[in-house]
Specification:
Elements: E1 11-15, H1 20-31, E2 36-41, E3 51-54, H2 60-69, E4 74-79, H3 89-107, E5 111-120, H4 132-139, H5 144-153, H6 155-158, H7 161-180, E6 186-192, E7 195-196, H8 200-206, H9 209-219, E8 225-226, H10 227-238, E9 249-252, H11 256-261
Parallel strand pairs: 1-2, 1-4, 2-3, 4-5, 5-6, 6-9, 7-8
The structure holds nicotinamide-adenine-dinucleotide.
Length: 267
């Protein structure tokens, strides 16, 4: 019987595979039989990786050079790399949004029919409905520099830049998936709650420890997620088991988003 969760015969590209969620995903894809794994990262990965392309996702020339080096067809693109707000507005919006979009546009023609793109967004982007008009206006700016200039020129919109970057990704998934599925390619994201990875030190500085502790407390399971709690949902979204899922931002947050939407988190 076919194993819908298997990665046997699949060629995968992963950004941000050196540490945290991406490193856990690389290990899991290895266990799931991935045929070929290419990792794009600013740091070299230490786990499973067949081709490493050193890439600075804040630099469009570096992204284009990586796109040119990636060989063969691609079954799954995981656009996972991300930075926190203390990287600054330009870098945060470049790595978290503009790079994901540039990779998508640069690689989508090489993604096989039935293939898929999965982003690591965040439940920090759940507030998108209040800013959907501005986000839509921004996402219509195709040029890299003009996109980042818009972000710098609208501090009233982009004031919480990490959350805004993830709002943009949730909206991007819903919009981009509409056209991609017509070419047989699914587009989705997963949206974790706080995860204990190297990025957490930056979140504690930019969001404050109280906010992180509050979010973990609302989950009710008594602990913060670790990378191996999150990687399986990425692997699922990229697998054939998710073949009918498209345009979805999947919360992987132990109920935090539900508790916030219903108000139970504040009761
Ligand atoms: N940790 C959390 O609490 C949390 C929660 C929700 C979503 N996320 C998202 O999960 C994703 C993975 O983050 P993580 O928590 O595993 O953190 P992490 O810092 O462990 O991993 C980020 C990876 O991205 C790479 N990277 C950073 N800047 C880069 C650049 N300019 N060019 C190329 N690679 C770069 C890093 O080297 C690293 O391998 C991010 O998109 C993050 O926003 C994290």
């Amino acid at each position: 019987m076919t194993n819908l969760f298997s990665y046997a015969g699949k060629r995968v590209v992963l950004t941000g595979g050196a540490t945290g969620i991406g490193a856990a995903l690389a290990e899991l894809l290895d266990e799931l039989g991935v045929e070929h794994l290419t990792i794009l990262d600013i740091k070299a990965p230490s786990g499973r990786c067949d081709t490493f392309i050193e890439t600075n996702l804040a630099d469009p020339a570096s992204i284009d050079a990586a796109i040119a080096q990636i060989e063969g067809p691609i079954d799954v693109l995981f656009s996972n790399a991300g930075v926190a707000a203390n990287a600054g507005v330009r870098t945060c919006m470049a790595v978290n949004v503009a790079a994901s979009r540039r990779l998508t546009d640069g690689l989508i023609d090489r993604i096989t029919k039935g293939g898929t793109i999965v982003y690591t967004a965040s439940m920090a982007g759940n507030g998108w409905p209040a800013q959907v008009a501005e986000i839509t206006e921004l996402l219509e700016i195709a040029d890299w520099d003009a996109f980042l200039d818009w972000c710098e020129a609208h501090p009233e919109v982009v004031n919480d830049v990490y959350a805004f970057s993830k709002m943009c990704m949730q909206v991007y998934v819903m919009r981009r998936s509409y056209s991609s599925i017509r070419n047989g390619i699914r587009i989705n994201s997963i949206c974790p709650a706080p995860v204990d990875t190297p990025l957490m030190a930056d979140f504690k500085v930019s969001m404050g420890e109280d906010a992180i502790n509050w979010a973990v407390g609302v989950q009710g399971n008594g602990r913060m997620a670790v990378a191996t709690d999150i990687a399986p949902s990425l692997a699922f979204m990229g697998s054939d088991a998710a073949a009918f899922i498209n345009g979805e931002n999947l919360h992987v947050d132990s109920g935090l988003s539900s508790a916030m939407v219903t108000g139970l988190a504040f009761s």
